[in-house]
Amino acid sequence: MGNLLRxxxxxxxxxxxxxxxxxxxxxxxxxxxPALTFDVQIDxxxxxxxxxxxxxxxxxxxxxxxxxxxxxxxxxxxxxxxxMGTSVNDLIAFAATNCIPGLGGDCPGLTEEQLQKxxxxxxxxxxxxxxxPGDAVQAGAQPCYLTTGAxxxxxxxxxxxxxxxxxxxxxxxxxxxxxxADQVFTVQLDDDIAPGEYSYFCILHRELMxxxxxxxxKGTTVTSPAEVxxxxxxxxxxxxxxxxxxxxxxxxxxxxxxPAWAGTGSPELPFALVNEFIPHAKTIKAGESVTWLVLxxxxxxxxxxxxxxxxxxxxxxxxxxxxxxxxxxxxxPGQDPTTPPDPSGAPTIIDASAWNGQGFxxxxxxxxxxxxxxxxxxxxxxxxxxxxxxxxxDGMEGTINVTA
Length: 404
Prior knowledge:
This protein is α+β, with helices and mostly antiparallel strands.
C-alpha cells in the first residue's frame, strides 16, 4: 500500500541568550525542543456511511527521540493491532521485493528459499486469528515486548508478565496485541532511538495495513501534531467520497433487479470497505428468496441472541478468545473454505433453502473478494419483518419485509 501522506512543515525552536553589560556575552545555548505527542488513527468511519479501513491515518509521520505516538483505534468491528520491531522491519522489506502469499497476491514460481523465508516470518510473527477454524492465537493477541528474535509464545507473552517499555527501535517484537474497542496504544520513543525508518503493521492484516515512523535527530523541525491530524482527516474524507459513490452504484444495480449486497467497495481503495447491506430494506412476497453477494468478511444473521454479538471474548485470566457463535453458521449451511473460486469469476452461491422466521439463523463468516465472490441465498416462508445483522462489523444491519 502506498504512503497516504508525505509530511512537511515547521515548528519553532527557541534560543536563549544570557548576557550582561559588565562581562562578555555568553555563548548562545539552544534549548531542547519540547517533546511532542502525535495521534495516529487506526481504521476509521463516517457519520454518513458505515465504512472500515485497513489503514492508519496517517501511515507515515516524522518524529524525534523522546516524542510520543498515540495510536487511537476507531472501532468498526475489524480486529487490529500495532506491531513494531526488527522482525516487522525485515518482513516489510522482504515483502517490498518478493511476493508473499497473503501479502503480495498470487505468487507463482516462488523458490524454495523464498518459501522458507515466508514460513520463518509467519513463525516469528503469528497473527492473532487462526488461518482456519480454531481459537485466537495468544502469542499474537496479547501485548508483547521482546528484545530477542525468538518467536513469541503464549508463555513469553503472558498478560501478567508484560510491561511496555519505551520503543528504542532495537526490540525484535513490540506488539499492542488485539486492540479493544476504542483503545489507545501509546508508544513513547526512547531518547536513544537512532534516526531511521521504523515500520509497523497490523499483525492480522500484515503488509496490507502498514505504516512507518521516520525518526530524525533531536532538534529537527517537524510538522506539528495538529497539522498532521488535519492532513490525515482530509485524506480520509476524500476516501469516504469514493466509498459513497461505490455504495450508490451498488444500490442502483440492486434497484434494477440485481442482487442485494452484503458489503461493497471501490476498486480504487482495496484497503477499504462499505459495511452496509444494500439495499438497507427490501420487500418480497412469502416464498420468494433474497440473494446477497458478499464483498468482505461478513455474516448474514437473523434473530441474533446477545451471546452471538461480538467476535471477541476476554476471559478472567486475561486470555483472549474468539466467539464461535459469531463466526460459525447456525441452522444454515456455511462457506466451504476448501472450495476454490470459480475460474470464470461466477459467484459461488450458498443456498440456505427456506426459513420459517423462527430461531437464530446465521450464515457464519463469509470471506469473499473479487473476482470470484460468494453469495448467500435465503427463502422466506412466512410473512413478517425480519431484521438481520453482520456479526463482524458494528452497525451493519438490514431489514427484509415479507408480505403475504
